[in-house]
Amino acid sequence: MIRIHLLAGAAAPCMLLAMPAAAQTQNTSSTTSDATTTQSWTGDIIVTGARETYTAPETSAATRTDTPLIQVPQSVQVLTRTLIQEQDRRTLGDALVNVSGVTPTRSDEVLFIPPIVRGFPAEVYLDGLSVFAGNQQAYDPNSLVGIGRIDVLKGPTATLYGGGIGTPLGGVINLESVRPTDKAGGYLAMRAGSFSTLNPYGDINVPLADGIAARITGEYQSNHSWIDKVHARRWSVQPSLSFQIDPATDLVLQGQFSRRSNLEYAGLPADAALAGTIRRDAFPGSPIDQPLTTNDIRMGQATLRHAFSDRLKLTVSGRYYSSMIDEQGSFVYPGLFPTGTVAPLYDVFPITMRNRTKEATVDANLAGDVDLLGGTHKLLVGANYDWTSFHSAMGLFVSDSPSGTIDLSNPSYDLRYTPQLPVNSYTDDRFTTFAGYIQDQATYGPLHLTGGLRLTSLKFVENSNIGVANDKTYTHLSPRIGATLDVVKGVALFAGYATAFRAPFGFIGTVVPVPETSSNIEGGVKLALAGTGLSGTIAVFRQTHDNVVTADPANVGFYIQSGRQRARGVEVDMVWEPTPAFSLLANYAYTDTRDDGVAPGDRLIRVPRSSGRVAARYRVLHGPAKGLAFGAGISAFTSRELTLPNTIAVPGYAAFDAQASYDIGRFTLGASVVNLGNRRAFDPYSYLGYPVVAPNQPRSAYVTLKVQI
């Protein structure tokens, strides 16, 4: 006889999942509940139901095994689907403000710079696999509608991750897609608001047959901007299909088709913008006949999971990714050519760029539980293959004459864009990675040990018509070691050490470069106090980055490897949910950065010394106002440097946001406001290395109508 036990927290509804026996060894998630069904091999099935929260008790991203966060010897923060939806976060950069120590990338500059974690570049992965979007590996999803959660792994994460040009130096931001389930349902929604924003989206799940289900998520948005002339469109469709092949095997097929198009914005000269001598919303270019910059992405992925037993499981994932980026831009760059203009008059230069990326990546691993040496061990052995082709071509001011001159204090926008074709510089690169890794998670009573090694062979072929060609194979061993110690139930101490390396992508110099490397040591306290609803991490860390690539001050357009940079600090990430009605998120980061290369003692660019956020949500669960919910938050940053050596910085600021929703049967009416106090400030921006800034978003309001189907 099979006995079924239903477990749920106080005031949390239970959910019994109708599952084939196959799924009894797998975690199953839905759009409305974090639920797990497991089977003990004595015949008991335990179904655990949990209400939607801002916390996730486990992560598979940090170890590629289902591991309680409190047992991971690394600072890991999880942004749940509930948090993303309730805060009306539409882009990855918007969502990442909820994590300490992260400097997000604006979507309009994503082609130039990746997100920064603890002072150094991080990489964005999708479902545990690399996404090489070209130029800094800065992948930004066109939609978060199909994302179930976001795991932010801080510090070098080389043991389990790699591909393209190496392993992540600063951290991994792993996006986990929603998958088909055996429960029919979904929703359609329409969002509209400031700057002519029109944003329909939806998520529909349909069981097709016994053990077969399909899901499709999609989104479209068109909008203008608070910046003159700028407008954009984007769409994304993500279909998926799941098969329960037999009681121990499942296969998930996923696809993504997306396109982003926008009038490319190059940022304002920082000195004049911060001095207030030019218009903050001016477009610094030649918008007449300037085509939109487009980014087309196509990808397909297959994931096969097979349980040989309840103690031995195989996971094989593979993806093919393709992107086509056609950039057309115009920008101001004082001093590029001495034509005698003086601010607020600026010469405008056109630029044309073409990027083509193809990537095939496969990861296979075998996880097994064994009792050994007086403890329990969760062993993981895996292999990874990645092949990436990247072609980039650029046409930049084919003559030394600009398109014309613009007065950014009173722009008239009468300059015409001239395509810079044929291109006059190019790179044609191939990167091939073979890697093997092993990991052991050992438990001896209250002590949990994690150790791992990754051996990577990266064949790096980078050809360019400028600089020195780089044709070399790098071999690197990346270790990781850490431990957590349960002090009392729900409280643990942790410490960890990890390293990473990557080839110097896009390096144009007079000598062949060596790999960039990073290392991180951290420690702190982790909380998972179920009785009080308090969970989170307090961490101290020290991270270094060696063989840093910086601009060559003696050769414009060339690079050198300057030496070491480092960051150290304290981070706090907390969530308090004492009842189902209330959620409070708070984070803070103190990040002290230093350069020891071209500018000894100076701070690293874009990274605030202090930053933080507090956000709360209250839900009415009973009475005549049942279904009403409202929330608010504040995000704040201190000043951020724009140049290295430090010559100019963007002042810090704080901005409020607010949200509200009301459930009426199958319908939900929502509203959100960005920058509620209409704080006028600037953010660091990236465009061709010149210090520029972009105005922050002014007060903006949006309404959403969602219907469950």
From TrEMBL:
One of its GO terms (molecular function) is siderophore uptake transmembrane transporter activity. GO terms for cellular component: cell outer membrane. It is found in: Cell outer membrane. It comes from the Bacteria. Transmembrane segments: none annotated. It is a multi-pass membrane protein. Its main location: membrane. This is TonB-dependent siderophore receptor. InterPro entries: Beta-barrel_TonB, Beta-barrel_TonB_sf, Plug_dom, Plug_dom_sf, TonB-dep_rcpt-like, TonB_sidphr_rcpt. The lineage of its organism: Bacteria, Pseudomonadati, Pseudomonadota, Alphaproteobacteria, Sphingomonadales. One of its GO terms (biological process) is siderophore transport. It holds the Pfam family TonB_dep_Rec_b-barrel. Belongs to the TonB-dependent receptor family.
